[in-house]
Amino acid sequence: MIKVRVPATSANMGPGFDSIGIALSLYNTFTFEEIPRGVEIISYDERFNNEDNLVYLSMIKTMEKVGHKVGGIRITIESEIPVSRGLGSSAACIIGGVLGANELADSPLTKDEILKIATNIEGHPDNVAPALFGGLVTSIMEGKEILHNQISVAKGLEFVALIPDLTLSTSRARSVLPKKIKYEDAVFNVSRVALMISALSNGDFQLLKYGLQDRLHQPYRSKLIPDFNMIMDICIENDSLGTFLSGAGPTVMALTNDFDGDFTNRLQKKLNNLRNKWTIKELKIDQQGSVIFHGD
Ligand code: HSE
Q: Fewest Cβ atoms nearer than 10 Å: which of 26, 155, 177, 228?
């Protein structure tokens, strides 16, 4: 029996569209057991308990790649990461499936090969890279290769996820993006990415409210999220260090260095007045990435 624990991820981090993501302390755990024949998938949601399951599909793809076969498989999924909320639940399923298959096949793949398979399934590396390695990770697709780098983040930052009771698929959120952008918007984002990375790394958190700004995806996606602009204003009024759309949304991520819960309490009171129900989760950076446990 093999267990794989994979963290949630918040991709883009404002201006770093499709290239930056961070692993956070919310987890999915996948248990893989070989059985004589057939496929059994056990999760909290009946809709996912079939052979279209992303964990299973990612596992099969990896097994084909490494030439490994099993009689049958039982996959049990314990989920903390909410689905289609911009917190990397798909990436967690993909990484879980690829790592599970690699372990069943006696680990023929390197971590870089695992990342490459996972990126090919997901289409972009910014969630799967931090889900695999942990921490803040930059990544690019260079031809068929995925290059990645971890950046250490100065201590003292908490990630406050504002999660609505509505889902938004990545494909829908990508469908509203423009085919072309203005040169000045490209410069706006490039400069913000540089500032964000140096501010996170040096602990100059007062710069994050500028460094986390974006013109490549948030202005277009904001229209899909009820009260998005009001929520951004609420976060600013309550002294968030910076706020951005997590991944493709609809979760909004606010950063704070206030660990006594006061920031969160103030936000929750304001969010209670909105049309949708917004749940707040206080998260830390996960530094470990995916972890594998072997059992009997
Ligand atoms: N970079 C991706 C996007 C993350 O924003 O569409 C979501 O999977």
A: 155
- Rounded CA-CA distance 7/129 in Å is 11
pLDDT tens digits, residue range 15-55?
999 999 999 999 999 999 999 999 999 998 888 888 899 99
pTM of the model: 0.95
Domains and CATH numbers, the chain: 2-152+286-294 (3.30.230.10), 157-283 (3.30.70.890)
Closest CA to 272 of 233, 222, 238, 234: 234
> Does residue 248's CB lie within 6 angstroms of at least one atom of ligand 1?
yes
Atom of ligand 1 nearest to the CA of 19: 1
Q: Please indicate whether residue 12, judged by its CB atom, sits closer than 6 Å to ligand 1.
A: yes
The number of beta carbons lying within 10 Å of the beta carbon of residue 111 is: 14
Rounded Cα distance between 169 and 156, Å, is 32
